[in-house]
Amino acid sequence: MKKQKNMLFLVMSLLCVQMLSAQAMTVSGTVSDAQTGEALLGAQVFVKGTFVGTTTDDNGAFSLDIETGATLVVNYIGYKSQEVGVAEGQALLSVQLEPDVLKQDEVVVTGLASSVKRRNLATAVAKVSGDELNGSPSQSLDQALGGKFAGVHIRRNTGAPGGGMSVNLRGVATIAGETQPLYVVDGIIVNNFENQSGIDVVSAATGAGSARPQGQPTNRIADINPSDIESVEVLKGASAAAIYGAKASNGVVIITTKRGTSGKTKVNVSQRFGSRSIINKQGFRKFQTYQEAEDQYGPDVAALGNDAGGNWAKREIDYEDELYGETGSLKETSLSVTGGDQSTQFFLSGQYLDEGDIIVNRGYKRVSGRANVDHRVNDKLKIATTAYLANTFSDRGITGNDNSGKSFNFAIAATPSFIDIRQNEDGSWPIHPTNASNPLHESAVLTNEETVNRAMGSTRLDYNLMRNSDMSLDLIGTLSADYVGQENTVFSPPELQDEQLKSNPGSSVLANHNSLNTNASFNLAHRMSLGGAKLNTTAGYQAETVDYNNSMIIASGMVVTQTNIDQSAATSALQTRRKQQDRGWFVQEEVAVGENIHVSLGVRSDRSSTLGDTEKSYMYPKFAASYRTGQIAIFDDLKVRTSYGVTGNMPKPFAKYTAMSPSNIGGMSGLVTSGLKGLDDIAPEEMAELEYGFDGSIMNGLLGFEFTLYNQDITGLLLEVEEAPSTGYTNKWANAGDMKTNGMELDLVLNPVRTKDLNWVSRLSYYTTESEITRLEVDPYNTGGFATFLGAYRIEKGWSPHTMVGAELDANGVHVVLGNETPDFVMGLNNRVQFGAFSLVAHFDIKQGGDIINLQKLIADLGGTTYDYDDQTLDLDGDGTKSGNGNERLTVLGGVTAPYIEDGSYVRLSELSFNWDVPKSLLAGKVSSMQVGISGRDLWLSTDYSGWNPDVSQFGNVAVGGSVDTGPYPMSKALYFNVSVGL
Amino acid sequence: MKNLKNILPLLFVTLWFGCEDLEFPDPNAPSTDVATVQTLVTGAEAGMRSSYGLYLREVSSVGRETYYLEPADPRYTGELLRGPLDPGGFLVYSPWAARYSVIANCRILINQFADDAGATGFAKTIEAYQLSLVLSMQNENGCKIAPYNGLESDFVSKAAGWAEVASLLDGGYADLNSAGSSFSFTLSSGFAGFDTPATFAQFNRALRARVAVYLDDWSTALTALDNSFMDAAGDMSHGVYHVYSSGQGDQSNGMYADPTGSFIRLMAHSSFETDAEAGDPRFSSKVVERATEITYDGLTSDLAPTMWTGDYDPVTIIRNEELVLLKAEANIGNGGDGLAEINVVRTAHGLADAASGGLTQLLHEKRYSLFLEGHRWVDMRHYGRTDELPLDRDGDVVFDSYPKPETEVPGS
Known about the structure:
By secondary structure, chain A is mostly beta strands. Helix content of chain A is about 10%, strand content about 50%. Chain B is globular.
């Protein structure tokens, strides 16, 4: 709770430099919360304009030797800074700090070794604290980030346990490149790969090793325990992120985990129990008469809907309920221990998470442990280490696109409600008459398991080279490593109906992904006071390596009951390796003139082994400036800021190579041209962004606002463009386009009620973005999806890259725009009310626009089971009659795609929690604090979208072409009861 | 400053890292310059099978020999039977791209290994074969005769395309005749009996005969047949095949499905039964009447193909039975009735002699002898008889040519 510290201030606090002066005095005092009177442990007290200072102890007390007449500055995270003049003879000070709702004094990291207070910050950086992040429990960090600040749009690719989410900052910055931001956890550049499970091979959605996999994988940021997080800082724009250079076009998310505090060892234990159930069901078609069934399916199948007497039984079995009606039980136990003394502090945590899910036998488990230790060796050298281990296990079932009839959603779509495919009393399973497989049987015996072993750690050394009253020079070195060992096993037993049709029934896939990411950085940070200005110079060098090895063995013709890949009739294997070495250096200068002006300038240079010319360095400059007016008119404070930066987006690691592929026959190995022509002088994509905005607050913090406009010019877009196959290649890489993206972000904080007993803070974040392709060297083309008439995205000059088109062409033969994946706006509304010991938090996520290609509806139409098949509201073939929606859509299929492109707007109650801080009077024994409450995730969803999830992507985290619904794992809501005890 | 010496290690490290060479080769795949004759030949053989099952399913659907009833993909019963074919979809694109990938391998062989006559003979023959498959689909829209240097080229007309096919086959034949007694490479078991230059040349002539018949060049056809492996007294199934296995990197035939399965996709058209002669083993051995019918998208059939009994059974490239019928066809073209050859085939299947010869009888024989081998649509179209093919639903059509693939036409 109130025991967190900022590490940077910890450095300063342990410096006690004796100043020899003719008029020295010792001042002491206490620092407390202005509203509650509670003493603040670890508040920083230092002499203004110098590095002379200390921190308060357990009782909020401090003592410092200073020059008479000096001014002290008192800081504490979450509170507004205060300056106190010390008059001669004044020996005891009592400082009361006001809570900083608008976070103007929050410290924000602006470089690899530098930080600035938010009130001076010249770029738009969002910071979220661990408490805000974990208001309601979430399985993974990316889910918890949703709606917390303007400029972020989180899309859940699937509702499956274990994650699989796209975190998108400031709209589209690429077409074929990486889309996810860079995650830096305690200095570790974290592995956030999406590793395929091999489910594509079993479902036949696409071939093994396809360039457009569809296995809806998880991404590895999900392994991190969100409760370990102290704060998350998101560098949204190029100027803020330029310091990370060629990897930073999608923004940077800097995560700091909790660290120990000196003092009595504190233990916190918390336990949660909950349940999870489906949030948005689709509905299904009901057949009222035998004739209806016969018209759709023919007499053989329709006869199955009759009862023993030959009369229509009017059976209406809800197969969505049969498959997704499970209520998953959730439990989570967390433990944390923090403590230490003046020279060593530690934070230990452990978590056990076991979440069941809405499909029987599916779920997610995680066991994790962390140890963060800080040790001050002497007054010059400090060491900080983090170590994190996690083991996760999940089973995700089989959903999404498939060409074998196995996928649960495709199978339900082919299952009319009047046939009964539930398990027989003797334990056997009925054969499905209209589909290749019986989904209930599949659900009972098919496994799709993912086990991840994760180990990551970093060590940071801070060495103070020199320090005097005007300047300091520090050497900061960080070494970190991140290891992922992921194993995926998919098993489709031979007794399944669709397996029996194969000549080698039964499939077993074993995939192993091992990767080791390391990075090392060495920085020098020079801080200087010069007159009224503070100068901060940092320079550093960074080296990063990636070593990844993935192997997948696909076995078919399994021996009955066996899953081992050698208990099979045939196996095939795939291996992919990736090695990458990046080197970069940077220099940054930050100048703060008085309290009003802040300017920062920097440049970063990058080389990488993935680029065509590995000797060439790419430069990424940045510039930022802000001016604070102080008190003016109704504004307590008003800051105008502008910034400019350039960042890059690296090409895919193999894009520079032109390879031949193996193609074998009769035991002999052969080679064919692989179809993809590499670009041997490939260069990174470049984004130049100009950002300007203003922030401030009015009426003494009643309303705070942050407004930003940004324009991004993206050049050298790397496109995998289609090549005429008659050349021998079907695709090639080319730096073939330019794009512009611009947008607006608005964050408002309203604090209408601020009394001792009742405090209400309301935050609104609103953001809108749009993109346009400004140059395209190749002919316009359709990409994404499956085929033009099934909905595709069009890449054409002058169009948004997220434009959806279909078969429809206008009178001039130009594709008709049917939709756009980019939302019109994304909004987050968060209300936090504290009354006495109770607190209530409600968070709404709102997306307006953002279209989805709903192919699940087409599959249901083809299977004759769509919920609106019989409704007569559409006349699509223009013949003047409404012959049933399903019929109408199918009749025009191939020429009309619009009915399948739907608006994905929604309003969702993402978080709701109600907590009670048990008063101390009720606590017994060693228990020092206790919190009890209930919380829920995604409890309510309102949307017109007819599919399961109004956020979906069949193709994972692709920039273009993802928003396609082919029956993903449905989203679920979770309700928890939590108890947390501090000792 | 005295602390400068503390910075020296940092500088050292910086310089060390900074001077590293970051270049390394592709860890995952070889590049074009390491390919040998053997790997290119094997790659071409293996690649010939890619999307060939798809090709057969497509031309058989258009030719109303079969349906492909796939609930997960409405294009097989929509686009193929009702049109229009989407020039950007996989039905048009995949067969085209797969054939040109093999052609690329053949081109590398012809350009890089010009002094190995056996290799160039092989390559020209295979390139011609692949182009003939492309032209069978594209028909009036022609094809591209790519020089394979990665550069784009324009479409040539149907006539020019077939002329190129003929010239490649003849050039290949000349190379094979000067290639000595054995190849410098090994072929798969699909070419058993055809794996020396002399016997492979017979395969070349068989293809040449087929092409000549398509072009109404009857005399060339008859000459080619004489130099091929056609044998009126021999086994009708003797010929060249695609072979498959479950080995590493190998393929399955993409045609097999258990005929008794609860749901199968490839089903024969019901007219195959209604038009069959009583007791024709070419009907009864190639399909079986199922207990339950399969229905999808308004189409129904209860005839499941039985030509393959497993995922790794071979698929025909060209065989003796077709050659005998080609001779009949060439004779008919020359004004005869082809009855002698027709009866050879009928006798081989234990059928009584036909009453008379002529084109209609020949087309009937070809239909049953070469069921699901990719000939029906091509033959009916050749003689302008596509209007005789049965149409099942309102709006169904039989089209004449596939559209040009979108990616091959600049500006589309």
